Amino acid sequence: MTKGIALAGFIVATAVATSSVAAECPRKLVLDYKGVQVWRSGPAIGFARSGLAVDADGAPNSYRVDGDGLSYTCDGVAAIRNGVALTPPHVGWQKACVEAWTIAQQTKDYSKVSIFGFKHDCSGPCIQKQGDPLPGQAYITTTSLSVPGTSPNTQRHYVNASEIPYIVLPGRMARQLKINYGDVAAVYRPKTDTVAYGVYADAGPALGEGSVKLHQDLKSDPIRPDHDGVKRAKAGIEDRIVTVVFPWKRPRASKDTAAWYRQIREIGSQSLREWGGEDMLRVCAK
User: Fold this and answer.
1) Which of 223, 205, 206 is CA-nearest to residue 214?
2) Which residues lie below 8 Å from residue 211, measured CB to CB, with a gap of 6+?
3) Same domain for 92 and 50?
4) 5 occurs within a structural domain
5) What pLDDT shows up at residue 70?
6) Domain count, the chain
7) CA 245 vs CA 96, 99, 274: distances in Å
8) If you count DSSP H runs as helices and E runs as strands, how many of each does the chain have, helices first?
9) Which phi and psi (to 5°) does residue 90 adopt?
10) Does residue 65 belong to any structural domain of this protein?
11) 205 dihedral zone (left: phi>0; alpha: psi -120 to 50; beta)
12) Domain of 213?
């Protein structure tokens, strides 16, 4: 009886001690990026914000020639007027884009549009060829991170958003914090208590964007029919998302996406454990 009580007391004491380890999130604010507080905790860089937009770049069917891809054509194209690319929040940017793109396709003169969503050094937009997933049907959509051992003139040179979970970060911010392309990240969704792992694979102007596969790993389906019945990768997550990046923890990019995906999960979970585990992640999410 005495031993049992002592053992019970030991268990309780151990539980209290363990929980106290993750009672606080030891973090320090390093910058405020457009209203989002970015902090450092040990070797990790983290931030939290409401919502996660969808990035389909790198998916073979992201930008189709017929416009029926996972992305709208004007997600990756902008009209140029007076030397300025009309992008959101410019008034009328979408209408201007549609008009300019229609003319460009008819005349094959792409000087009045800015193409940034897909490869365009082929006297205009580069269309997938034989050996690519969708030859003649889709443009070569690009990501900042590339896959070694592949030609830059093929779709397989870029990270497939449908198969690899990745996050998007502003390039300038990433460089300032010494985060490099390919570094692994843990992404936590408190609403479903789900942790997913991804890599930093694309640069963009805003925080809070992830690939199609990352959304799926966070238990959200981002692909849904739009008003025309075309399946688009537009259904982002609206609830709170916490992202923690581990600089220099880098899975090896590979043409074998299944092997690369396994390694992302393995190195991601190991990095998270070394940092403090899921309990620390939950505390830092508050």
Assistant:
1) 223
2) 54, 55, 56, 57, 58, 159, 161, 162, 164, 165, 166, 167, 198, 201, 202
3) no
4) no
5) 97
6) 2
7) 38, 40, 13
8) 6, 13
9) -55, 135
10) no
11) alpha
12) 26-56+161-284
Q: Does the bond joining 89 to the residue before it have cis omega, within 30 degrees of 0?
A: yes
Closest CA to 174 of 195, 211, 145, 149: 145
Residue 74's alpha-carbon distances to 90, 93, 154, 165, 285, in angstroms, are 13, 9, 22, 24, 34
Residue 233 contacts residue 223 (beta carbons within 8 Å): yes
The tokens describing 127, both together, are: 């269309």
Q: How far apart are CA 179 and CA 173, in angstroms?
A: 8
User: What's residue 17's pLDDT?
Assistant: 36
* Same domain, residue pair 166 and 280: yes
CA dihedral 230, 233, 235, 239 (to 10 degrees): 180
Query: For the chain, how many residues are written?
Result: 286
pLDDT tens for the chain, residues 1 to 286: 433 433 333 333 333 333 444 568 889 999 999 999 999 999 999 999 999 999 999 999 999 999 999 999 999 999 999 999 999 888 999 999 999 999 999 999 999 999 999 999 998 899 999 999 999 999 999 999 999 999 999 999 999 999 999 999 999 999 999 999 999 999 999 999 999 999 999 999 889 999 999 999 999 999 999 988 999 999 999 999 999 999 999 999 999 999 999 999 999 999 999 999 999 999 988 8
Q: 10 in helix, strand or coil?
A: helix
* DSSP category for residue 95: H
One domain, residues 31 and 126 = no
Distance (Å, rounded) from C-alpha 141 to C-alpha 216?
20
